[in-house]
Structure formats: structure tokens, C-alpha cells
UniProtKB/TrEMBL annotation:
Key words, A-Z: Lipid metabolism, Methyltransferase, S-adenosyl-L-methionine, Transferase
Family: Belongs to the CFA/CMAS family.
Record-linked Pfam families: CMAS, DUF7884
Catalytic residues in the record: C378
Official protein name in the record: Class I SAM-dependent methyltransferase
InterPro entries assigned: CFA/CMAS, CMAS, DUF7884, SAM-dependent_MTases_sf
Length: 416
């Protein structure tokens, strides 16, 4: 029996639904309500669910689904006090429950792959990218840190901070690609420019970045100017489909970009990368994938499509590699970084929470709550294995017999 304070002031129907929903959980949390009443499950609760509005609470109990609960959190109808990761994990314990004949209860967001509804025209992709990336550079800096790298970091040990781990990732990619001074290097979907600037400064390449985000483009241009490396680093506001030429680049990288391409466009995407790459060149594709047998819930897809990541699609690593080979790439190396992305997202969530007031000022409280929910859910999906992230090192199928990489992986971990 749950321990309540002034329980009689909550009507019987609400109490009954509360008991039904939370009867089989770990009871590592407590609840507070709009009228000052509370339900106490634990003396050492990991978190407290604080419901602020009776009408909204009753509506959620009658029609529980991911979008309704996520929007209620985003709109401040309830708060999570304490460990948000433990709170999101509560969803796993509730997922088989049915209420009032409705869909399975999914109280908290668990993000994964995304719907295949959007047409990936150049115009639509630009609109989608703007939705995701043009919120505010200041907002992103608050949780990404000074590196401004919005993708999985690379932790060499448990105690490394996020900035060091992101620099590790940039250098890890440069080593895999065996970058050398004077080589022409392309970053497709270059974000805030960290990769091209790192490669130009530390490896002496002629670095070229492309992005279709207006805010990112302006940021990178300014950053290159401040670094004083205009002679060997430049960026264009350009769709990857508009990059011209044949066998232009010695090395190409794509980090966290191909998720925006769309399943139907993957063959064209890899065909273009192959066209742009020189005969003995290397291409590294770093991107998120989903488990082959994972089926994402319709409500989850709709939430992400609406609020976070319109037009994105995930596929299994086996499917992606099949497309790579169909487009005349040889797969040289595949590395899973799933645990690294879980650690990365935990750092980002902690940073965002630590900078709550500034994040709200830079964007809005709605954006702050939405991204907190989104990144926490993503972290738990990486931890659970429904989604992952891979770096795949590729080379063109060679016209003449021979080998294009060293015998062992040692070159990735020592100075070139």
C-alpha cells in the first residue's frame, strides 16, 4: 500500500489510476501534486514527479502516450526533480501496461529512429536542418562546450572531460584517414567547423567544409577568420548534392550528417562521395544506426519528427554497409562507439542542466525542456542498444590490385 499525505483529497478515480500505473515499478521515486499533496514510495528517492495541473494530469492518465507526456513536460505541466535519467528509465517498467483500452503507457521519451515521411529535396532538407541547428549558437555552446562538436566524443578513460574527449574524436578521425599536409580534405555537413579547423591546424591539409545551416555557416566563417587560417580552410553554404567535380579530394569525412540524407537517398549520397574521392583516397562515415530488429513506436517517431529532428532516418549498420559496397566502396574498418555516445550525452545533459537559466535566455524554456528530454532519452537508447553509432572507413574499389591501408590498426593510435 502506498504511503500518502492527505490522500483523501485526491478523488478515488485518480488514486486508482495512480496505483494501477505504478504498481509494478521499483518504487525509487515519489510524487507531488498541484495541491500540496504527495505520494511517497521511497525515503531515498532518485527523483520526484511533480504534477502542477490537475486537469492535465487527469487527461494524461486517461490518454497516455509519448507525445502527450513529452508535451506536458515541455509545457511545465509536470517537472522532474532529481535524476532525470532514472526518471526516463521508468518508461521501461510501464511499457506493457494498458489503460482504458488505449495504447501502451509510455510516460517518458525514448528516442530512436525517425519516420520516413519527408521528401528529401534540397529545399526540404535545408528547412529541416534549419529547424534542428539554427536555434541559437549560444544555446548549443552551453552544453557542447568550447569545442562546439555536436557528435559522439571519444573517451580514452572514464575521467576525461567532454572537451578533451571531443578533441580526441577529431584526432582519432584524422589518424584513421591518415591525413597529410597538402592533401585536399572535405567535411560534408561540417557543423560549426571543428573538424576542418582541427585538420587544417594540426595536419596541414587544405580543408573544405559544406553546410546548409545558415547559423553554422556564419559561425564557421567567423571562426576561420579568428584562427587566421583562411589560406588553408574554407566553408560553403552548399548542399552535398551541389558539390562539383570528379576525384577532387584525397580524404572525405561525414560526421553525424548521413542520418539527414534519407533512406532512399543513401545510394545517391554514397555515389557522390565516391565521385568526389580520388582513386587512392579514404572516406570516413561517422553516423548513428539502429538495431536491425528494433521497431520504433509510432508516437516516438511523431514526437521527434515534430519537435527535434524532422526528416531524419536511421538504418542498421548492415544495411548501410550493403549500400556502401553497392556504390563501389571497399570497407576497411568498422568501429562501434555506442558507449562513447552514452557518455557524451550524459555530459551534454549535465552541462545543459548546469546552465539552465542561460539556456532559457538563449532559446526558451520550451526549447530547454525539449532538448533535456530528447538527449536523456537518446542516452538511454544508446545504453540499451536500440541505437548505436559507427565509424566506417572506406576506400574506392581500386582499379589495380594492391592495398591502401597499413597491415594493422596501430597507425590509428600513434603519431604519423
Amino acid at each position: 500500500m502506498i504511503n500518502t499525505v492527505k490522500r483523501e483529497r485526491l478523488d478515488h478515480e485518480l488514486i486508482s489510476k495512480i496505483e494501477q500505473i505504478f504498481s509494478n515499478t521499483n518504487k525509487n521515486f515519489n510524487m507531488k501534486f498541484w495541491n500540496g499533496e504527495s505520494i511517497k514510495y521511497s525515503d531515498k528517492a532518485d527523483f520526484t514527479l511533480s504534477f502542477n495541473d490537475r486537469e492535465e494530469f487527469n487527461r494524461l492518465l486517461m490518454h497516455p502516450d509519448i507525445i502527450a507526456f513529452a508535451e506536458a513536460y515541455m509545457n511545465k505541466s509536470f517537472d522532474i526533480e532529481g535524476d532525470i535519467f532514472s526518471a526516463i528509465q521508468l518508461k521501461e517498467e510501464l511499457e506493457n501496461l494498458e489503460v482504458s483500452g488505449k495504447d501502451k503507457v509510455s510516460i517518458f521519451l525514448k528516442t530512436a529512429s525517425l519516420p520516413k515521411l519527408n521528401m528529401h529535396t534540397k529545399e526540404k532538407d535545408k528547412e529541416n536542418i534549419s529547424h534542428h541547428y539554427d536555434i541559437s549558437n549560444d544555446f548549443y555552446r552551453l552544453f557542447l562546450g568550447p569545442s562546439m562538436v555536436y557528435s559522439c566524443a571519444y573517451f580514452r578513460d572514464e575521467n576525461e572531460d567532454i572537451t578533451t574527449a571531443e578533441e580526441n574524436k577529431l584526432d582519432h578521425i584524422c589518424r584513421k584517414l591518415r591525413l597529410k599536409a597538402g592533401e585536399k580534405f572535405l567535411d560534408v555537413g561540417c557543423g560549426w567547423g571543428s573538424m576542418i579547423i582541427w585538420a587544417a591546424k594540426h595536419y596541414g591539409v587544405e580543408a573544405h567544409g559544406v553546410t546548409i545551416s545558415e547559423e553554422q555557416y556564419k559561425y564557421v566563417c567567423d571562426r576561420i577568420k579568428k584562427e587566421g587560417i583562411q589560406d588553408k580552410c574554407f566553408v560553403e553554404l552548399k548542399d552535398y548534392r551541389d558539390i562539383e567535380g570528379n576525384e577532387v579530394y584525397d580524404k572525405i569525412v561525414s560526421i553525424g550528417m548521413f542520418e539527414h540524407v534519407g533512406t532512399k537517398n543513401l545510394p545517391e549520397y554514397f555515389k557522390i562521395m565516391n565521385r568526389l574521392l580520388k582513386s587512392d583516397g579514404l572516406f570516413l562515415n561517422h553516423g548513428i544506426t539502429k538495431s536491425k530488429n528494433y521497431k520504433v513506436a509510432k508516437d516516438e517517431s511523431e514526437f521527434i519528427e515534430k519537435y527535434i529532428f524532422p526528416g531524419g532516418e536511421l538504418n542498421s549498420i548492415s544495411y548501410v554497409q550493403d549500400i556502401m559496397e553497392q556504390e563501389n566502396f571497399e570497407v576497411y574498418d568498422v568501429e562501434c562507439l555506442r558507449e562513447h555516445y552514452f557518455k557524451t550525452l550524459r555530459c551534454w545533459v549535465n552541462n545543459l542542466q548546469a546552465n539552465k537559466d542561460m539556456a532559457i535566455k538563449a532559446a526558451s524554456e520550451l526549447v530547454y525542456r525539449t532538448w533535456l528530454l530528447y538527449m536523456t532519452g537518446c542516452a538511454l537508447n544508446f545504453k540499451g542498444g536500440s541505437i548505436s553509432v559507427y565509424q566506417v572507413l572506406l576506400g574506392k574499389e581500386q582499379k589495380m590490385s594492391g592495398f591502401n591501408i597499413p597491415l594493422t590498426r596501430e597507425y590509428m593510435y600513434k603519431d604519423i
